[in-house]
Amino acid sequence: MHLLQSIDELRALLSPAENAAYLSDAWDDNTQIDMACDEIKMDFTSPNQGHLVIKGGYKSGLEHFLIKFSSRFKSVAGNLDSINRCLTLIGDAQTGLITSLLIDHGDQDPADRRHLPELDWADIQRCLSVTGDESVWLHQKEGFRAFSVGEIMVPPVIYLPFEGRGDLHLKGAHRHGGDIYVFKIATAFPNNIGRGLEPSQGMMVAFDARTADPIMVLRDEGHLTDLRTAIAGRNAAEAMMPANELIGVGVLGTGVQARLQIGLLKTLYPTCNKLTVWGRSKENTINYANEAAVTGWEVSIVDSPMQVADSSNLLITTTASEVALLDAHDISMPNTVIIAIGADMPGKVELSPALLHKAQAVLIDSIPQGIDHGNAAVAIRENIISPSDLQEFGDFLSNGYREPEAKDRLRIFLSSGIGVQDLQIVQSVIEGS
After folding, report:
1. Domain range for residue 75?
2. pTM for the whole thing?
3. Is residue 290 part of a domain?
4. 385 within a domain of the structure (yes/no)
């Protein structure tokens, strides 16, 4: 990623049409034709008072898109001057990749400007290794607890569509009083495969919560999101299924999460080696089973999700299904935990409403998000369950099951991903840097 040195370099990078669209008053003109634009605002009170505006825009037919972070924070030097910062990210509208950035430090002396570290995935992995697995897992648990007691500020999501080529989401989080806030940019451009690129790309930016200065760019290509999602499943399994009660692990799906989840579960349940798997593609399922066998699992491939439930009492669902794969009558073992990972966007569902109704405990990362989309949203819309039937995972970690009789019966954890997980995983990277 190229670090631009001045607004003049930015103007030179952009075409005349892009300069007119993004660097003029036209940016704020809602009548501008073929302009996709989204904006969020955040107010900070601690550790410093400030205001942040983030705006993303893409005009159809242009080569680039822009995302601009503009902030004004109270001076930390005790004078009347405010701290003004502007970070502009420039992306390729054909691939969704962020290619350049410009930092405007306002009136700050150039000599006082710090270098902005940029970490790739190999750098990030080294930092996490220094932090250590136990600390990384603990950071994630602390994040869920903080979220459930209202300590986490999560702004709305910025969404930009790119004319059938793909889309972009920008999500962020800040813990009240915390030293940093974090924003993540995630893109999905299926045609990238033909360009020799991954279809899903991602990066995260950490900011100083006292000054709004960017302090680190993490070019993780989406791997951090995959990792923190897998850790959520691992932490849920640790809290919900004791090792001495585990009969076998069952997995629905054969993709990235299906691999990461069983990798972390192997460290959590080292004496368990029974794994049952179902996948839509026979070839992918065989490949997945062979890979799992190399790491010590005794793998059985079955023909249906119900057969997975027949032989396992810890079930992990990791698919992009748009129809329920497991129903209430599929679960026969009384002491069963289901960790549902795949239904992370509107339109996706893995568990039937009747299955959620059957459960003695339904834990979820975020109740408001669960009402909007995912497995719980379907059940709520159909009036099979109500929001009051849900318990946030962070509350469970602090206080246990709301209904004590849920122990040793059917329990479900629903994960669709929340911003605090990104905040905490970046905190783990910084800790090891």
Report:
1. 1-113
2. 0.92
3. yes
4. yes
